[in-house]
Amino acid sequence: MKVQCVICDKQQELENDTPLAKKLRNRPIHTYMCEECHKRIEDKTKARFASGQFQLYSFKRKKRDF
């Protein structure tokens, strides 16, 4: 199965029997990211988290009166 990274547009070949290939084939909303881009994003996120400037925002639902 041919796949293309959503960030760097590098094309790669995946085996058809792997779980990732099955997930991409059966659920088109999932996108593929190459290992280099995934590692780069992971490293930068860990560096931001270690700096103390990283915050996760949780959105709270507003209560509706019915």
Characterize the structure shown:
By secondary structure, this protein is mainly alpha-helical. It has one domain. Helices cover about 40% and strands about 10% of the residues. It has helices at about 20-25, 35-50; strands at about 1-5, 10-15. A two-stranded antiparallel sheet has the order 1-2. The radius of gyration is 18 Å and the shape is flat. It starts with a strand and ends in a 15-residue tail after the last helix. The model has no long low-confidence stretch (mean pLDDT about 85). This is YlaI family protein. It holds the Pfam family DUF2197. InterPro entries: DUF2197.
Offer a concise description of the structure.
With 66 residues, the chain is mainly α.
What's the helix count? 2
Strand order of the largest sheet: 1-2
**Run of helices and strands:** EEHH
Structural class: mainly alpha
**Low-confidence runs of at least 5 consecutive residues:** none
Radius of gyration: 18 Å
Integer average pLDDT: 86
The total beta strand count reads 2
Percentage of residues in helical conformation: 25-40%
How far do the termini sit from each other? 50 Å
Note the main sheet: 2 strands, antiparallel
Shape: flat
Task: Kindly give the count of domains.
Answer: 1
Binned strand content: 5-15%
Keywords:
YlaI family protein; single chain; 2 helices; mainly alpha; DUF2197; 2 strands
What is the element layout, followed by pairings?
Elements: E1 2-4, E2 11-13, H1 19-26, H2 35-51
InterPro entries: DUF2197
Organism: Siminovitchia sediminis
Protein name: YlaI family protein
